[in-house]
Amino acid sequence: MKAAIRVLTLLVLLAGGTAGAADTSGLNPIDQTMGSPDAKLTIIEYASLTCPHCAHFHETMLPRMKAEWIDTGKARLIYRDFPTSPQALAVGAAMVDQCAGNDRYFGVLGLLFQTQEKWVTAPNPLAEIKRIVRVAGITAADVDACLERQDLAGAIQARAMEGNKKYGIDSTPSLVIDGKLYPAFESYEKLDYALQDAWRAVSKK
User: Which domains are assigned to the chain?
Assistant: First the structure.
């Protein structure tokens, strides 16, 4: 029961960063955003749902960054999948999250990161994902239908390739802050320092 309450709380908290439709110049059609489109800072996160370091970032640093930078209107987050090994599983999980829809996107993303170890190491990862996302109102039939969408799988992979070509993304998690690439941060303090530095730069414009 306590675990279920934690999951529901996570869905509610991250739903506060409801994904925005990709209607702003510079966004990929499948991008999901959190925060005001008028924010001075733009943070692009490249992550993989099968990446343990990405899960750690989402569990420990993202909540604080959201509270201090995104919810305050200073920054907007653009989330982009960059599937890593096992790549087929990473792409599949990313597809399920995309099919959850804008209103549930970040809640399901957080849920999949929180339970990553369970489904990545499960004898049947797909069955475990289906079980996990039920709490978000996603049925097994919804997951099966989603995974039939080869157009979505192609779009996720093409966007990752574009990230590699445009920004030099080759590992996860990677953040692009105001156009500058940063690899994984060791601590929130170092991330905040980079954000403060970028904030000072955009504030002078």
Answer: 2-203 (3.40.30.10)
Q: How many CB atoms lie within 10 A of CB 189?
A: 9
Question: CB 17: neighbour CB atoms within 10 A?
Answer: 22
Tokens at residue 45, please?
């996160």
Q: Calculate ∠ Cα 112-33-177, nearest 5°.
A: 100
112: phi then psi, degrees, rounded to nearest 5: -70, -35
pLDDT digits (tens, 9 = 90+) for 75-126: 999 999 999 999 999 999 999 999 999 999 999 999 999 999 999 999 999 9
Paired strand residues for 41: 75
3-state secondary structure of 90: helix
Integer Cα distance of 59 and 114 in angstroms: 7
pLDDT at 55 over 50: yes
Ramachandran category for residue 39: left, alpha or beta (phi over 0 → left; psi -120 to 50 → alpha): beta
Pairing of strands 75-81, 41-47: parallel
Residue with tokens 């080759």: 170
Cis omega before residue 29 (within 30°)?
A: no
- For a pLDDT cut of 70, what percent of the chain falls above it? 88
153-179 pLDDT per residue, tens: 999 999 999 999 999 999 999 999 999
Query: 76, 109 in Cβ contact below 8 A?
Result: no
State how far Cα 51 lies from the chain centre.
Answer: 12
For position 105, what pLDDT does the model report? 98
pLDDT value, residue 14: 43
